[in-house]
Automatic annotation (TrEMBL):
<feature type="transmembrane region" description="Helical">
    <location>
        <begin position="100"/>
        <end position="118"/>
    </location>
</feature>
<dbReference type="GO" id="GO:0005886">
    <property type="term" value="C:plasma membrane"/>
</dbReference>
<feature type="transmembrane region" description="Helical">
    <location>
        <begin position="296"/>
        <end position="315"/>
    </location>
</feature>
<keyword id="KW-0472">Membrane</keyword>
<feature type="transmembrane region" description="Helical">
    <location>
        <begin position="48"/>
        <end position="69"/>
    </location>
</feature>
<protein>
    <submittedName>
        <fullName>Amino acid/amide ABC transporter membrane protein 2, HAAT family</fullName>
    </submittedName>
</protein>
<keyword id="KW-1133">Transmembrane helix</keyword>
<feature type="transmembrane region" description="Helical">
    <location>
        <begin position="125"/>
        <end position="148"/>
    </location>
</feature>
<feature type="transmembrane region" description="Helical">
    <location>
        <begin position="76"/>
        <end position="94"/>
    </location>
</feature>
<keyword id="KW-0812">Transmembrane</keyword>
<feature type="transmembrane region" description="Helical">
    <location>
        <begin position="260"/>
        <end position="284"/>
    </location>
</feature>
<dbReference type="GO" id="GO:0015658">
    <property type="term" value="F:branched-chain amino acid transmembrane transporter activity"/>
</dbReference>
<dbReference type="InterPro" id="IPR001851">
    <property type="entry name" value="ABC_transp_permease"/>
</dbReference>
<feature type="transmembrane region" description="Helical">
    <location>
        <begin position="172"/>
        <end position="189"/>
    </location>
</feature>
<keyword id="KW-1003">Cell membrane</keyword>
<dbReference type="InterPro" id="IPR043428">
    <property type="entry name" value="LivM-like"/>
</dbReference>
<dbReference type="Pfam" id="PF02653">
    <property type="entry name" value="BPD_transp_2"/>
</dbReference>
Length: 328
């Protein structure tokens, strides 16, 4: 007598829409170098590498802004730590990118811990101002380093090496290395957001008092997220230094912090893939409008205002609105 199983067949795991969006972006990124080769315009690959590096920084900021409701206006300081880790270690003959990245992460972890430990004892505009103050301290500290060009910046004699190889001197190799790191950090961030830690962080964003009442410490969770975000941002700085072969305190100015916030808002706050898309959109608009007029910031600001008015959730929300309209 045969036994017929009545259990439902196993279903293949369904990817979340935001993960699908990230996979689409990563696929387009991977296909970009062949397109550049076909167009015979090597300068485009430099722009692509810059976009990938800023995508890392925007995603790192979204981890605390979108999921922890922490508006850091000094986050560009960690970009600067990454760039100067490359410059300072290179001046001492240490060119390995892994050692430079480790130094950038260590410095950023200490700075983020101190900054977060102080600023997280405040809320709202006070938090914003304290993070801005710490960012400006770092900015003026590096301006004072005359040995590394001060306000004029410092040119790198060579790019970083990887296990003793100068493979990153090749523009395409640097591009794909940045892409691999972006994918890896996205996977890490997605895992963090979906973990118990991420759910608690989101709960603190919604109602910190209630989370504290059921036994969680908002300060500890927010501080940990703040440190993780700062360390991730410093990795972006390492790749920016190699892309530009030049470092400057301008990488860590408050204007740059504002640009990172704009990227997150433009893409959609609280969506890791949206932050990546926001970085792409912001930098492409900058390149396009910059070629049309020297007053490109005016038009970029107008575009941002219209986006916020008609799609408060950014590009991600706009895409969702279009998809819902088609489904009706």
């Amino acid at each position: 007598m045969s036994v017929v199983s009545t259990s439902a067949p196993a279903r293949a795991p369904v990817l979340a829409p935001r993960v699908k969006a990230a996979l689409v972006l990563f696929t387009l990124f991977a296909l970009f170098p062949p397109v550049v080769t076909a167009l015979d315009d090597p300068f485009l690959i430099l722009i692509g590498t810059r976009i990938l590096a800023y995508a890392i920084a925007a995603m790192a900021l979204d981890l605390i802004l979108g999921y922890g409701a922490m508006v850091s206006f000094g986050h560009a300081a960690y970009l600067g730590f990454g760039t100067y880790a490359v410059a300072i270690l290179s001046s001492y003959g240490i060119h390995d990118i892994l050692l430079q990245t480790a130094a950038a992460i260590a410095l950023s972890a200490v700075f983020a811990f101190v900054t977060g430990a102080i600023s997280l004892r405040t809320r709202g505009v006070y938090f914003i101002m304290i993070t801005l103050a710490f960012g400006q301290m770092a900015f003026f500290f590096f301006i004072s380093l005359s040995a590394y060009g001060g306000d004029d910046g410092y040119g790198l004699r060579q790019r970083s090496t990887l296990f003793g190889s100068d493979v990153l001197e090749n523009e395409y190799a640097l591009y794909y290395a940045t892409l691999v790191v972006l994918i890896g950090l996205f996977a890490l961030s997605h895992r963090i957001v979906g973990s118990r830690f991420g759910r608690v962080l989101t709960g603190i964003r919604e109602n910190a008092t209630r989370m504290e009442a059921i036994g969680y410490s908002p300060f500890r969770y927010q501080l940990t997220a703040f440190v993780i975000s700062g360390c991730m941002t410093s990795i972006a700085g390492v790749f920016l230094a190699n892309q530009a072969e030049f470092v400057s305190p301008a990488f860590m100015s408050w204007h740059r912090s504002g640009e990172l916030i704009v990227m997150v808002v433009l893409g959609g706050i609280g969506t890791l893939s949206g932050a990546i898309g926001g970085a792409v959109a912001a930098l492409l608009l900058e390149e396009f409008l910059g070629k049309l007029t020297e007053h490109w910031r005016l038009w970029f600001g107008l575009f941002l205002v219209l986006m916020v008015l008609f799609s408060p959730r950014g590009i991600t929300g706009l895409i969702q609105q279009i998809q819902q309209g088609r489904a009706r």
